[in-house]
Design a protein that fits this description.
Distance between the termini: 122 Å
Number of strands: 0
Structural class: mainly alpha
Order of helices and strands: HHH
Strand content: under 5%
Radius of gyration: 37 Å
C-alpha cells in the first residue's frame, strides 16, 4: 500500500530541483569570493598604512639626527692632537 501512495518524481521535477541546487551553490560560491575580496582589500590597506607609518617614523628620526641650521658645527682637529705624540 505504501508503494501506491509514493509517487516517482517526474523528470521536470528533478530538473527543477537540480536547478535550485545549482543556484544555491552558485550563490554560496559568490558570497565566499566577496568575503575573500574584502579581506584582501583590508589587508592591502593595513600593509600600506603600516609602511606609511614606518616611513613617517624614519623621517622623524632622520630629522633629529640632522644638525640644525645656524648652529656652529663642532670641529675636532685630530691631526694636532695626534701630532704631539
Amino acid at each position: 500500500m505504501n508503494a501506491d501512495k509514493t509517487q516517482e518524481a517526474n523528470p521536470e521535477q528533478l530538473l527543477k530541483l537540480l536547478e535550485l541546487q545549482v543556484a544555491a551553490a552558485r550563490e554560496r560560491r559568490t558570497s565566499g569570493e566577496i568575503r575573500r575580496s574584502k579581506a584582501g582589500t583590508i589587508g592591502i590597506f593595513v600593509i600600506i598604512g603600516g609602511a606609511a607609518l614606518a616611513l613617517w617614523i624614519l623621517t622623524l628620526l632622520l630629522e633629529q639626527m640632522r644638525p640644525q641650521r645656524g648652529e656652529p658645527h663642532e670641529v675636532v682637529n685630530v691631526s694636532t692632537a695626534e701630532g704631539g705624540r
